[in-house]
Amino acid sequence: MAAFIRAGALDVSREILSQSEVLDRNRHQANQKTTIVSLVALLLLLSSPVFLEGGKRATGILVQTAPRAITLTTNNWQVTTDLLTRNGKDIAFASYSPLWKFQRKLVHSALSMFGEGAELLESIICQEAASLCKTLTLEHDTPLDIAAEMTRAVTNVVCSLCFNSSYRRGDSEFEAMLQYSQGIVDTVAKESLVDIFPWLQVFPSKDLALLKKCVEKRDQLLQQQFTEHKETFTDDSVLDLMSSLLRAKLNMENNNSGLLPGMELTDDHLLMTVADIFGAGVETTTTVLKWSVLYLLHYPEVQQKIQEELDQTVGFDRYPQLSDRQHMPYLEATIREVLRIRPVSPLLIPHEALTDTRIGEYDIPKGARVVINLWSLHHDEKEWDKPGEFNPGRFLDEQGNKLYSPSPSYLPFGAGIRVCMGEVLAKMELFLFLAWSLQRFTFSVPEGETLPAPEGKFGVVLQAPKFKVKATLRKAWQGLEIDQ
């Protein structure tokens, strides 16, 4: 495949159509969508998109240092993201600026309260993993929608981080959050016509109406948390991200230390920053867990091998710990393979050229959008052996004992200044939730249920199809209980 696709409408159309076919994997639907996809491709051409597919070039763009010729800027043409972020007052979609750098620095500082491998954060995740295992025990050998249970577990980890709170199973507020989250995932950043031609928003749109309703519900929940934190805030009670951001804002106001004239950290910036961490932290990790379980159902031999590794490394007298990661290369390789074959975000958030620049032999004009085609990077036949096959062994050495990176075309969390801030947390959650679950249970397809093919639904994340599982307690764990 070419490194860039920008030569004309036909080339862009082929690339967009290819993405649609790969992501949907439904030949009948793909044929029906050809005309629509070609039209969208032609419309995208008007804004000069550059699709970047080469692994080394993609890495170079993402990690380049100042002066930054190409970086992400607010997509003013995207109505949906503006609604989601109150016109770019978050971190993920905001323009590169001193205020953006300050916001990101604040979040990094808040996350460092927990730190990678810190006992506090690990204990929070393990507590939720134990709760998940308790639910699996109660639903033993019955068809279960594990997606909702994993979503609740991940949500509680992020809630502890953001708000120092959590949800119980069946909580009405949690159910409301699930609904608005799904609505946002289904409607944001899908290159819809209203994003390309903003003036179309004056006409009735079901997707836009749904998004506005979901964002309104999200903002109500966020505002409730924000108000409670402001009312109870003291400098000695900084126990979560929202309190940390409040303290930073108050310190700026008290010290009169604004960033630049006319630039300030408003309540909207705080709320949208927390919304970023909360929304992205829940949806992305949950999506990877769903894909992981689905692939384990399709490849039971992989699940069995992980369980054998757990038995040898952890045993039956304790639960998995974060320190076990370095001794469990096969589970780690499986996680990496899931992230490769089904990247959470097949197309990374668009970047924009701030000046005329050059990438390799290609001239990139100022204002051109640069899109990292992560799906192409992770499925490039020049970089990966049989990329369409699920094979955790590709991330292991010949002896199968050590992890290694077989290709530079592997960027599941992005790179550079826009690298996912939750990468460390996500990796901790993926390991601990899967290790705890597979140590005690074997996942299988319930009788009478059909296992769906691993075909994704494209949106702001690549959504896994719905499916149910049967969690069977392993023989070694029947009647066995250990203290946490």
Automatic annotation (TrEMBL):
Superkingdom of this protein's organism: Eukaryota
Protein name per UniProt: Uncharacterized protein
